[in-house]
């Protein structure tokens, strides 16, 4: 029986004859699972028909097989040779899986710290997903979700193995991020549909966070290696020195955060 069978679906039927020594008819019962029931009707004064039907929703991933027992009370027995007043019949129900569960990630570290020596082509980590349907599992293909994510182009993922590698230098990523902020990637795992008659392929995603290595604390630097300014002889205190081309009185620091804070001091004044 398919796991997506509807409530009320009939599975099979059994026939039981009454004991000729008793006036009362044969009575059928079903034991083994609350998901199945039996509907009885008399097709003759001596014979009862019991139809086994579904009472609830099946789930292959929870249980793929059911052992049921049909009991016939006051069933036929050979007069004078068999004194039993009950007979049993074993029924085994096999649940057939259908494609209704998306892939499940079994390996997907939520947080990863990237080492400082990582270069393009190096492996960052590897994810793994499996088809959530265990009956006839499909193969899985991996990809990176690029929509709305500027960092997808900095990484690559092997579509069959799930291995994620660095595609561009870390410095390129550092230039676009603030110190301490993680780089977020979304990985998609999608089932592979092999025939036109199969149900649609299902997919699932997981988000990964990469923390970049700490930036080196580089020194600040001047726009020019020396500066020249002219000042009149009788200039008053507080007169501002004016630096003209080609001199630019500007100091820069490529570090972010507290490493990018600096102060200026006059030496030999």
Automatic annotation (TrEMBL):
Entry-linked PROSITE patterns: CADHERIN_2
GO molecular function terms noted in the UniProt entry: beta-catenin binding; cadherin binding; calcium ion binding
GO cellular component, one term: catenin complex
Localization terms from the record: Membrane
Predominant cellular place of this UniProt entry's protein: membrane
Segments forming domain Cadherin: 4-105, 106-222
Alphabetically ordered keywords of this record: Calcium, Membrane, Repeat
Keyword Magnesium among record annotations: no
Taxonomic lineage from the root: Eukaryota, Metazoa, Ecdysozoa, Arthropoda, Hexapoda
PANTHER family given in the database record: CADHERIN 23, CADHERIN-23
The organism's place on the tree of life at top rank: Eukaryota
Cross-referenced SUPFAM superfamilies: Cadherin-like
Alphabetized Gene3D superfamilies for the sequence: Cadherins (2.60.40.60)
Entry keyword Calcium: yes
Official protein name in the record: Cadherin domain-containing protein
Regions crossing the membrane: none
Any single GO BP term: neuron projection development
């Amino acid at each position: 029986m398919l796991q997506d069978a509807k409530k009320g679906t009939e599975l099979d039927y059994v026939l039981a004859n009454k004991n000729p020594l008793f006036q009362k008819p044969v009575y059928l019962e079903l034991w083994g699972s609350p998901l199945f029931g039996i509907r009885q009707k008399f097709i003759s004064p001596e014979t009862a028909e019991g139809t086994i039907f579904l009472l609830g929703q099946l789930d292959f991933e929870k249980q793929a097989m059911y052992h049921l027992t049909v009991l016939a009370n006051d069933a036929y027995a050979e007069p004078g040779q068999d004194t039993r007043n009950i007979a049993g019949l074993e029924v085994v129900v096999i649940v057939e899986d259908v494609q209704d569960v998306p892939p499940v990630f079994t390996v997907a570290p939520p947080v990863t710290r990237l080492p400082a020596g990582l270069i393009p082509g190096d492996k960052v980590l590897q994810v793994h997903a499996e088809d959530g349907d265990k009956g006839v599992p499909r193969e899985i293909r991996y990809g990176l979700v690029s929509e709305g994510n500027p960092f997808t182009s900095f990484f690559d993922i092997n579509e069959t193995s799930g291995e994620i590698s660095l595609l561009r230098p870390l410095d390129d990523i550092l230039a676009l991020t603030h110190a301490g902020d993680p780089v977020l990637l979304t990985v998609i795992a999608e089932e592979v549909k092999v025939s036109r008659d199969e149900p649609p392929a299902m997919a699932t995603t997981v988000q990964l966070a990469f923390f970049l290595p700490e930036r080196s604390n580089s020194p600040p630097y001047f726009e020019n290696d020396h500066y020249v300014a002219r000042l009149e002889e009788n200039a008053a205190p507080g007169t501002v020195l004016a630096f003209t081309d080609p001199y630019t009185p500007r100091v820069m620091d490529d570090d972010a955060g507290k490493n990018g804070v600096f102060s200026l001091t006059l030496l030999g004044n």
